[in-house]
């Protein structure tokens, strides 16, 4: 199943985001039962600063996604203040399919 994860940064967390970025990125690339398919920064309207993150992950259920996120450096270091998890149904007509074989 696919999950969309929408994360908003805590005010004043840009320093924490920078210091936790390498560990966060390494975790996204590590093998596990949650597979990040697409991820990146949400940017301010002028494009100069990160304001959050967006991930699309494959996982068996919401509990696995929640457990995976609980140990993410952006959570443990206080970067993300708000995290929303939603089931995601990718369109069969999308130009880039997000389907795992």
Automatic annotation (TrEMBL):
Record InterPro entries: Dimeric_a/b-barrel, Sec-metab_biosynth-assoc, YCII
Name of one Pfam family that matches: YCII
Record protein name field: YciI family protein
Organism: Nocardiopsis mangrovi
All residue ranges annotated as the YCII-related domain in the record: 1-89
Top-level taxonomy: Bacteria, Bacillati, Actinomycetota, Actinomycetes, Streptosporangiales
Membrane spanning stretches: none
Similarity comment: Belongs to the YciI family.
